Amino acid sequence: MKKLLLAALICIAAAARSQNVGVTAINLENIGYPYPVNFLDVAIEGNTYQMAYMDVKPEKPNGKTVVLLHGKNFCGAYWGQTAKTLAELGYRIIIPDQIGFGKSSKPEHLQYSFQMLANNTRLILDELGIMKATIVGHSMGGMLATRFALMFPEATEKLVLENPIGLEDWQQKVPYKPIDWWYENEMAATYESIKDYQLTNYYGGNWKPEYDQWLDIQAGWTKNQNYKIIAWNSALTYDMIFTQPVCYEFYQLQVSTLLIIGQRDRTALGKNLVSPDIASTMGDYPELGKKTASLIPGSTLVELDNVGHLPHIEDFNKFIAPLKEFLKKP
């Protein structure tokens, strides 16, 4: 009875707060970022788009660069604390918003691929004259970071994967859904449904006020009169994630790799499309982390107990300690 009452109170509070969430501009023009934002024009499929990125320069450079790649439901802004800490240690930090995300352009028609996103990321490094960098990727950014390291090993000093998705091929268990299905699913999103997903999949049922800012961006988009553009890009990137696995190529990685895996994470695309028995076999990060570490030559696995899908947000100290140690190694 107490659990039902608590759940009801949480729902009432969420409904009340959702009314106060403002409209998020399509390219986050009304959302502040922790550092100045630059833009690079990128030519793709006959069109030119603007790709946003932050370039955080340390006061006392150590000559090393770290690139931070965001997940699907986030933007570069959520790397603010990570960038600040690493910059204080002398690292130059580059934080892109991929095309279709954050402050970057939202195309109405684009064939998404991890190869395209990796190439765009390389264009930023080339523009800035950066020859080599450590590539850090979270969630979808982990799939992108892997693709970047495979495409550009000469530009990848080290690789860090923080609770990356794509450690398994969901196509083997989940029935394919067309892009229109993903689009309709995104168009039905609400503040309450987005929060419920994040609460369950990211934070293990324990919500903290500091998580609101990342929820509000997504929820605010659903209130924008042009939300269909966001929903369509989201549908396209869901299809990219589902149909372009990287897990079969881990053995080809040629760079020193660190896996930081929150052990409570159970994220998997399409769990709601299969039976409970099959769903229970998906997104088992404790096992997937070990399996992936065994596939990547010479990789290091750090397991974070009682941490979910977003270690650098949920428990920053647990996340940053192994990252700093790994970056210091020759």
From TrEMBL:
Domain of life: Bacteria
UniProt entry keywords in alphabetical sequence: Acyltransferase, Hydrolase, Signal, Transferase
Membrane spanning residue stretches: none
Keyword Manganese among record annotations: no
GO terms, biological process: acylglycerol catabolic process
InterPro entries: AB_hydrolase_1, AB_hydrolase_fold, AB_hydrolase_sf, Epox_hydrolase-like
Pfam families found in the cross-reference section: Abhydrolase_1
GO molecular function: acyltransferase activity; monoacylglycerol lipase activity
Signal peptide region: 1-18
Domain AB hydrolase-1, first and last residues per copy: 65-182
Gene Ontology cellular component terms for the protein in this record: membrane
Gene3D superfamilies given in the database record: alpha/beta hydrolase (3.40.50.1820)
PANTHER family: HYDROLASE, PUTATIVE (AFU_ORTHOLOGUE AFUA_2G14860)-RELATED, MONOACYLGLYCEROL LIPASE
Identification of the protein by name: Putative hydrolase or acyltransferase of alpha/beta superfamily
Lineage of the species this protein comes from: Bacteria, Pseudomonadati, Bacteroidota, Sphingobacteriia, Sphingobacteriales
